[in-house]
Design goal:
InterPro entries: CheY-like_superfamily, NreC/VraR/RcsB-like_REC, Sig_transdc_resp-reg_C-effctor, Sig_transdc_resp-reg_receiver, Tscrpt_reg_LuxR_C, WalR-like. This protein has about 230 residues and is α/β, with parallel strands linked by helices. About 55% of the residues lie in helices and about 15% in strands. It has two domains: about 1-120, Response regulator (Rossmann fold, 3-Layer(aba) Sandwich), CATH 3.40.50.2300; about 140-215, Arc Repressor Mutant, subunit A (Orthogonal Bundle), CATH 1.10.10. The longest helix is centred in the C-terminal third of the chain and has 15 residues, at about 185-200.
């Protein structure tokens, strides 16, 4: 059972998230919060596998709550909920160690897919979020889109063939276990490859590596959801 905490300052959004998540028999919503501070308190008390946090909340926002969770409840993986136009917040959350990013207006199936992915140790970027991050990096002086894509491809070219293969799966939201099964290797081998990939790409976490995969155009579509 995947135990999930929901945090959003809008009651109707929380109700919608709960309604979607409870359609999956393997997911249990263990609490709801209307602000980041309450979310942290609930997470400390109930130790959920996943916390789904709105990026903007009164008092303590989603990024601040995530930082506190990373410090005090590190086993809880964080998915950030965002809307279009919040690119600066997304980049801050990416650097802060968020495991997943979802657009509030996305398909319900994507919420379940994202929760399952991060609970299994993967990173999950909504394709819409990945596209926004890539475009925003180009628009904020981090190089034109063409330049960044070329740079990303060069960085990916520096990986070994096996590492490139692992990056494709990583960028598609697969966990180490899922990648291991696809490649018919043990999970420890995949973990070693992922560590090497992060070092070679110069990024700190799987979500940032997934962004590079999207920039380089090597991220495959996510696998179909199985219930």
């Amino acid at each position: 059972m995947i135990r999930v905490l929901i945090a959003d300052d809008e009651p109707m959004i929380r109700a919608g998230l709960r309604a979607v998540l409870t359609t999956d028999a393997d997911i249990e919503v263990i609490g709801e919060a209307g602000d980041g501070r309450h979310a942290v308190e609930l997470a400390r008390r109930h130790r959920p596998a996943v916390a789904v946090l709105d990026i903007r909340m009164p008092g303590m926002n989603g990024i601040e709550a995530m930082a506190e969770l990373r410090r005090t409840v590190p086993a809880t993986q964080v998915i950030i909920l965002t809307t279009f136009g919040e690119d600066d917040y997304i980049l801050r959350a990416l650097g802060g160690g968020a495991a997943g990013f979802l657009i509030k207006s996305g398909e319900p199936e994507e919420l379940i897919r994202g929760v399952r992915a991060v609970a299994d140790g993967a990173a999950y970027l909504s394709p819409a979020v990945a596209a926004r991050v890539v475009a925003h990096l180009a628009a904020t002086g981090a190089g034109t889109e063409a330049t960044r894509r070329s740079s990303a491809r060069n960085r990916v070219d520096g990986l070994s063939p096996r590492e490139r293969e692992v990056l494709v799966f990583l960028g598609s939201g697969l966990s180490n276990g899922q990648i291991a099964r696809r490649l018919h290797v043990v999970e420890g081998t995949v973990k070693a490859h992922v560590s090497s990939i992060l070092a070679r790409l110069g990024v700190e976490n799987r979500a940032a590596a997934a962004v590079v995969a999207h920039e380089a155009g090597v991220a495959a579509p996510p696998p179909p959801q199985q219930y």
